[in-house]
Amino acid sequence: MSSQASSPERGAGGSARREADGSARRAADGSAKRALTRGDVLDAAAAIVKEQGPRALTMRKLAAELGTAVTSIYWHVGNREELLDALVERTVADLGEIRAQGRSPATRIVSVTRALRAQLRGHPHLVAMVHERGLTERMFQPATQALVHEVHAAGLRGTQAAEVVRSLLFQVVGFVLVERNRERAPVQYPGDESLWDEATAEHDPALAKGLAAPPDPERLFLLSVRAMVEGLLGTRPRA
Amino acid sequence: MSSQASSPERGAGGSARREADGSARRAADGSAKRALTRGDVLDAAAAIVKEQGPRALTMRKLAAELGTAVTSIYWHVGNREELLDALVERTVADLGEIRAQGRSPATRIVSVTRALRAQLRGHPHLVAMVHERGLTERMFQPATQALVHEVHAAGLRGTQAAEVVRSLLFQVVGFVLVERNRERAPVQYPGDESLWDEATAEHDPALAKGLAAPPDPERLFLLSVRAMVEGLLGTRPRA
DNA sequence: ACCTGAACACCGTTCAAGT
DNA sequence: ACCTGAACACCGTTCAAGT
């Protein structure tokens, strides 16, 4: 409920920011000690979340990191939930534009999905946090915008265009989520071998191998997105 | 670390279970009091998770619900994390088979994705919990199995078949996730209207409306899956 | 305007002790 | 074999009090 309207670090577009990593206020060193700002809190919180996930972000740990009393944080950001809200908000705002590349609409659409996937992979915990806060639509706004443009260029309009855009967004999100799951837990239970033995794979060893471990997610991503674009537009995109 | 091997309620296939809703041990009523079993704990935990989400499942609340001391629970399930593990494990095991319907492979594939979506929607918190535990592959095993069969029937083999199966799974998961997000947070911030005004929708009001609120997720789901199947198989599925 | 420590209600978990 | 209360370390949050 604290109506802080500072909104620090809006940047000049979104890509380059890294210098101002709250290195100013270190108290543990005994060095110079500035006044704590809302931006400091967000920076420190962002660092913890990025490295250890949102679960590891406790108010007390954050305070220790900043060299302040726990209660000071509350003055600047309200409470933990509002802190996470602000963090997500800032990260989403800093994601930057998505630019299509290529000549044909189909190719340009594929390039947008690739850019979106790259963004999502760059912020491993962001998707879940955005999801919890009901900001999904907003987070995908830039990508949606770009897709709208390309779908229009492909000649689609109205409801049909909207459905194509949404199908593509869902595809990317689903892919990244499952992909990340595999990265985090490479060895599944009860283990891939037993899950895809000869019988369950219907005597198709190459298929069993393909399902047990996707050797090239990049390739799989391109393939599925291209299939989807082809099915939706009736045009085959080119590499 | 407690090696309890009871594994209650494995059922006779998976669909019908509902009678044994831990109504036996009610202590608050002052009625008859059986010995607490691992199954009781899992049942009560499942009820809480189903109604209020995994976050609301605290050991103390669970104990109160069961009419026991908190520490009794630990004897039966180890700790909170193992409790959730067991819960997910049991739920996944009880999900049941997925049967394809229809004549052509393309149509049957679509029917499998619909069944999978219905399963996921029936357990709103399951996907996230499974995801956290790295059990995604296992959870989708029945659906994958069914898809493998149909893709084989469509004449695909090996790596190509595996890629088709995976693309479809990703599509379904992504769809359900985003769909659920919209249900939970119907009013987005900063609001759909402002997000899709005339300019951002490139002067296509029907598209703006389509993106602001998907009137029929069922329809959108079918459309996108069919497009994907068509793009992957080169065959158009029929309703 | 900003920061502080004390205090509260709530967690998960351990452990010695009961039956 | 099962259950218990006491106790520990950790949470988020509030509040009166400082400067």
From TrEMBL, chains A, B:
Residues 16-32 have a biased composition (Basic and acidic residues). Residues 58-77 bind DNA. One of its GO terms (molecular function) is DNA-binding transcription factor activity. Keywords: DNA-binding, Repressor, Transcription, Transcription regulation. Residues 35-95 form the HTH tetR-type domain. Pfam families: TetR_C_1, TetR_N. The keyword Ribonucleoprotein does not apply. InterPro entries: Homeodomain-like_sf, HTH-type_TetR-like_transc_reg, HTH_TetR, Repressor_TetR_C, Tet_transcr_reg_TetR, Tet_transcr_reg_TetR-rel_C_sf. PROSITE patterns: HTH_TETR_2. One of its GO terms (biological process) is negative regulation of DNA-templated transcription. It comes from the Bacteria. Residues 1-33 are annotated as: Disordered. PANTHER family: HTH-TYPE TRANSCRIPTIONAL REGULATOR RUTR (PTHR30055), TRANSCRIPTIONAL REGULATORY PROTEIN (PTHR30055:SF151). This is Regulatory protein, tetR family.
